[in-house]
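Appendix C. Worked example: SDR family oxidoreductase
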Amino acid sequence: MHVFVTGASGWIGSATVRELVSAGHTVTGLARSEESAARVETLGATVLRGDLGDTGLLAEAARGADGVVHLGYHHDFSQMDRAADLDRAACEAMGAELEGKPFVFASGLVGVRSEDDRPSTGAHPRVANSAATLALAERGVRTVAARFAPTVHGQGDHGFVAELVRVARERGVASYAGDGSNPWAAVHVSDAARLVRLALEEAPAGSAVHAVAEEGVATRDIAEAIGRGLGLPTRSIAADDAMAEMGWIGPFFAMDLGATSAQTRMSLGWEPTGPSLLEDLPHYTA
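Step 2, the predicted output written as structure tokens:
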């Protein structure tokens, strides 16, 4: 299968390209910069230079592919509306060219627990985009929402856990909200990439799959592991103080982001084999 991948040089994207190539697929990866292009080439993919704002280019790439994996996103919390607008336009442009083809796109777990759950579209602009893209199944597109755990971890990750470690280093303490029992789902990046491939190959139209290996790691346990690794104390803070105490990551760390992947495992035969989050944390604190 010839697969067009956006976000191909990113954290999950690069692992996904590697997985697809290893499975015998031909991959074209979108790359905005020379650095990203070089990264995509080293993974064994063909480079298409451009960005998510070029909807004509995206449509052409989707039209020439056998399927699309859309992992690119404008991750700037100061421009959330603009990011959502870019994502919506990109999904519309690619989706219009994918009748009879698979279209796997990145989503999250906010407001859901199981694969059948559909969150309120008012929760976040990206949630509305996800609902609209899934609805393309009614037009013959095999759309699949790949809902990633908030913690897609592994050596080299610069995401949420890396930010938690950075904040702990900066402030001299590893914090968690309340009693720290709120769960965060987690998955190793290699397992997430394998699930994306399986979803592309097999998942039914209009479905959601959960990239969740651990259904919920207590945030207190995460903070304590960070504290041990950095040689810092651990403390509880009030959930209302999470932003002031920890910056933008604080409110996310105070949320309940646990979820199940039972249906995903059963329908696709996906079984995670990577290390757990707590086993991986020494890579972040070294």
